Amino acid sequence: MRIVVAQTSFLGDVVLSTPVFAALKRHRPDCHVTAWVRPEGAAVLDGHPDVDAVLVDDKRGADRGPRGLLRLRRQLVAGRFDVALALHKSLRTAVLLALARVPRRIGFRQSAGWFLYHQLVRRDASLHDVERNLSLVAALDIDPQAVPPRLLVAPNPTAAGRFGALLRELGAPVDLPFVGMAPGSVWATKRWTVEGFAAVARALAAQGQRVLLLGAPNERAIADEVERRCGGVAINVCGRTDVAMLVAAIDACHLLISNDSAPMHIAVARSVPVVAIFGATHPRQGYGPYSDRAVVVQRELDCRPCGRHGGETCPIGTHECMRAIGAEDVLAAARRLLAAEPSSSRSAAS
User: Fold this and answer.
1) 109 near 115, Cβ under 8 Å?
2) Rg (Cα) of the chain, in Å, rounded?
3) CB neighbours of residue 122 within 10 Å
4) Rounded to whole angstroms, how far apart are CA atoms 63 and 52?
5) Which residues contact 220 (CB under 8 A, 6 or more apart)?
6) Please, are residues 201 and 233 in contact by the beta-carbon 8 Å criterion?
7) Each residue's pLDDT expressed in tens, for the chain with a length of 350 residues
8) Can you tell me the distance from the alpha carbon of 279 to that of 319, in angstroms, rounded to the nearest whole number?
């Protein structure tokens, strides 16, 4: 059986999809599983033991527009897939699978393209997204409850060495663990304040912790401002790592402090404890850290959540959900997790 699993949303959504691949392989070890993801998703699935192939969809770049749709249709046809599982609810995904004439298409009842699927599964809003994704495999007579819902991101064999080389270039020792900080997010309303991150960085550094700022290239300006405001006590690699090196950087941490963003989910997949700061979004939407080694810091306000992903501007103009979170709140959560951790042997590779 040749199966394509479609998840062309954000990087964090791909990480939350990884238990689906394990479920398929456990039920049918001889099946061939292709992950249909965006370029950054392909990077995080590199080396995944339950993914046989990756179909890259650069839908915001080279695959935009009619030509991109035709190219992807040709690739889907060439894949000779027997089954498609559509974790992404977009109309575009449903249309492409229908145009490719995949003979058995399974998607969510709440999908924009629900009418193009052969089998529909109810997407239970009360569940975590990991469990919602796994609910689709029930259409293949796989019991979702029988599958360990563990997130999995495999380390790239060269990334740790490249990350270690970057640390040496910055004059940082490579043999001690960090407290990582991911101050960015695609959406402005999901970002805690730079003042807050800087205050926590100073406090942790004063306690002997090494602080590492990390994130994507488009988040570099935010990390640079945190670095400036904390007086240079943090090592800043934000924007200087690819996705594989980002995973290696998180592996070098014994704690990650993050907004609701992809690094939070990668840390869970790599068994790194997480302090997760939530503002515009809310864990009850199903995207909180899927771990018992995580603490969520948030303020309960009547206006939360104000969207599924957050947004560029606060709907009431105050950004109170984030401004009301003090550095002492995040520090208390960080200290609680650090105290619970045994002496860590995590380090960047030399």
Assistant:
1) no
2) 20
3) 10
4) 22
5) 238, 239
6) yes
7) 999 999 999 999 999 999 999 999 999 999 999 999 999 999 999 999 999 999 999 988 888 888 889 999 999 999 999 999 999 999 999 999 999 999 999 999 999 999 999 999 999 999 999 999 999 999 999 999 888 889 999 999 999 999 999 999 999 888 889 999 999 998 999 999 999 999 999 999 999 999 999 999 999 999 999 999 999 899 999 999 999 999 999 999 999 999 999 999 999 999 999 999 999 999 999 999 999 999 999 999 999 999 888 888 999 999 999 999 999 999 999 999 999 976 444 444 43
8) 8
Q: What angle do CA 46, 51, 56 make, to 5 degrees?
A: 60
Strand partners, 33: 3
Pick from 281, 282, 262: which is nearest to 270 by CA?
Answer: 262
**What is the pTM assigned to this prediction?**
0.94
The span from the CA of 180 to the CA of 249, in Å, is 8
Q: How far is CA 46 from each of CA 35, 153, 159, rounded to the nearest angstrom? A: 11, 8, 11
Question: Would the CA dihedral through 173, 177, 179, 180 be positive or negative?
Answer: positive
Helix/strand/coil for 294: strand
The beta-carbon contacts of 289-293 under 8 Å, at least 24 apart in sequence, are 289/264, 289/265, 290/16, 290/128, 290/130, 290/149, 290/151, 290/265, 293/337, 293/340
Number of other residues whose CB lies within 10 A of the CB of residue 221: 13
- 255-258's contacts with Cβ under 8 Å and 24+ in sequence apart are 255/179, 255/180, 255/334, 255/337, 255/338, 255/341, 256/179, 256/180, 256/181, 256/182, 257/179, 257/180, 257/181, 257/182, 257/197, 257/200, 257/330, 257/334, 258/180, 258/181, 258/182
| Residue 330 to residue 77: CA distance in whole angstroms | 49
- Structural domains of the chain, with CATH: 2-146 (3.40.50.2000), 159-340 (3.40.50.2000)
